[in-house]
Amino acid sequence: MTDSIMSKAATMEIPINSNGDTGTLPEDDSLEQAAKLQWSLDEKVGSSRGTRDLQQVMVSGPNLNETSIVSGGYGGAAEGIIPTSSIKGPAVRYNAEFNKRIPVKGLGSNMHHSSSSSSMMAEEATRGVAVEKLETVKKWGLNTYKCTKQMISERFGRGSRTVDLELEAQIEVLRDTKRKYENVLRLARALTNHFYNMVQTQHALGDTFADLSQKSPELRDEFGYNAETQKLLCKNGETLLGAINFFVSSINTLVNKTMEDTLMTIKMYENARLEFDAYRSDLEELSLGPRDAVAMARIDAAQQQYQVQKDKYERLRSDVIIKLKFLEENKVKVMHKQLLLFHNAISAYFAGNQEQLEQTLKQFNIKLRPPGADKPSWLEEQ
């Protein structure tokens, strides 16, 4: 009978409270009788052994994740048993000896691993950018050193330089032409300013003569003739100013834009020539040295750099030759038109030929601005 009762007690589920102790079901008397019988048997075996076994059960008892919560009494429906593994919440491990819950490491370690990986990737990217900048500075420093060495050698007559006599002669002619055209531009601007002041003076003088002709009846005719003459001169002067301003604008474009663009290309060509000679001298020095494995590797690297600089030098040299050719053609075309305009306008003005002066402006498609057009409109200022 004892065995049957024990087997029945073994098949029962023992609820466990939050402290890990076994509880009793007051509504089930058979469970209480089985517990009393178990207690009497443990006393016969020995109280010390029973206590030690109970502690072992408490310490290494069932995991809370594997236990079940019984919603009803013994013998109820199977649907009343809810496995605790289905309850969502923070993962913990229960320590029955110290009566506390210990959090289980899992999700936090994964998050820490991902954050450390992202920080390592960011650090590697920053390190790569720093290395790239360091390499750029290193190449720039080496190139500057070689070019400075070549420049000093050329100035002291100890180094050789690549010379293109025909091209350098054309470059020198262009620089001299630019200086002379700048002088023409400066004088034309001075003429414009002086002539503008003269026209303004003639305009004021004509207004004064006209006012005096109204206030002096005895000299009305004389003041009137002079007033009309000054107004006519003022009108022709404004027409001539339009022609001179167009001349100045065209010369300014030719000197400060077209010629300056060609000179910028020439400056790039001269820098490329200096770099080419610097790497050429470096290659020649290495070629005169020993021929071991390390020296041959340096010679190969110097040969590659020399070829790169040579290609750059040849390309810019070709660009300079083409630009000089087109600049010469453009200069002749522009100056032919502008000099003809300047001559016809000046001749017509001082000859007093108003019709010819106006015809000259029409010939060159020059439109005079009205007197109040110097100040931009409110729409243009926006």
**Number of strand segments:** 4
- What's the average pLDDT? 75
Shape: elongated
Q: In order across it, which strands form the biggest sheet? A: 1-2
The amount of helix comes to over 70%
Largest sheet: 2 strands, antiparallel
Gap from first CA to last CA: 110 Å
String of helices and strands: HHHEEEEHHHHHH
Strand share of the residues? under 5%
What is the subunit arrangement here? Answer: single chain
Structural class: mainly alpha
Explain the layout of strands and helices.
Layout (H helix, E strand, L loop, with lengths): L1 H10 L17 H17 L1 H13 L8 E3 L10 E3 L8 E4 L4 E4 L3 H49 L9 H51 L4 H68 L5 H58 L3 H10 L14 H4 L1
Antiparallel strand pairs: 1-2, 3-4
Helix pairs in contact: 1-2, 4-6, 5-6, 6-7, 6-8, 7-8
